[in-house]
Every structure is written in structure tokens, then in C-alpha cells.
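call fold(seq) -> C-alpha cells
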Amino acid sequence: MAALSTGQISALLEGYISSPDPGAAVTVPSPLLDQLSVLLDLLLRWNRSVSLTSIRPPQEIVQRHFGESLFTGCHLAHHLSFAAELLDYGSGAGFPGLPIQLLLPHIHVTLAESQSRKVAFLREAIRELKLPTEVWPRRVEEMPPDRRFDAITLRAVDRMVTSLAYAKKRLRTGGWLALLVGETAQTPLGAQEFLIPGSVHRRLILEHHL
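ret:
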């Protein structure tokens, strides 16, 4: 039996799935809630033996992991062309990359994660959900020098300043950097900032690199 029904997941995600531009509303794929239910159950099962996330209650996982990821995807959606390439830098258990792939199935998502146990989970989730998502099972610095992306997401990565420097080198001209940060992070000049629903301090920062 699923940990949460699709109706419960939908209610928990209210407010997270919306576009900042009313003229560019995101079309939510019909399988999304069913896919999120599968992902939630898989995450809970793996989390019993492999430390994927310190958040345990299913409701909190839906809001903190799924909600923040989908919020990011909605804000990136109208900036990305069909078949755009997105890198989830330091993906961990797949956030925000996996929910963004579910929300925007037409783009190509690469999950960069160097920890082998998390890589195993990511590959299992991709198989279970039948996604075209790629896993890069090493550090981003080890990617071929010419590998570039239209968008890069970072959330709770180690060595944020260093990681940001590497991430910016991986952006194509005109690319977007999406950072999920807490209250202490400074918003770069010219970047867009959005408060995450239900949060007092957590923010999404979008930087456009021309």
C-alpha cells in the first residue's frame, strides 16, 4: 500500500506547482502524481537501510523534496527550450533533478552524484519510473571539458562556493543557474529571488548567465 495517496500528495503540493509568468503556465503531465507516489515509496524503502535523507515523515518528504524541486522546475520551465539539457549538481537522492524530469519530460536531465549508494538509488528510481535521465556517477569536475548545460541546479551541496564556480563553467551562454538556499545565502546582483511556499527563509535564486 502506498505511503500516501495521490490525492494526499496533490494537496501537499498545493502552491508549489505554479508559474511566475501567468502567460507561460506549466502543463502538468498526467502521470506526475502516480510517478511521485512511486518515487516516494521507493525513497522510503531505501531510506530504511541507506541514508538518503534525514527527513523521514512522508508528508515532509513530499513538501521539502518534491515541492521544492517542482517549484524550481516551474520557474525554470519557460526559460528552457524543448530538449534543453539540465545538470543537477550534487543530486544526492535526486532532488531537485528527478521531480524536474517528471514535470518536464521533454528536457534531458543529468544527475551528478559521486556517492555510490546514492548512485545505486538514482539508477533504481530511473529504471522504476522508466525515465531517460542520465546519471553521472563521479564529480562534476571530472566531466569532459566541453560538456555544457542550459540549466544547472544546486541544492545543499558541499563546498557551495567552490561548487558554484565549477557550475558556472558548465553553463552554456544564456544558461540558467538555479540555487535552493537558506537565509544566510546572498542573492547575486541582478538575480531573481523567490520565497519557497510554506517557508520563512528558504529561497530559490535564478541567475541568467549571458
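The chain is about 35% helix and 20% strand.
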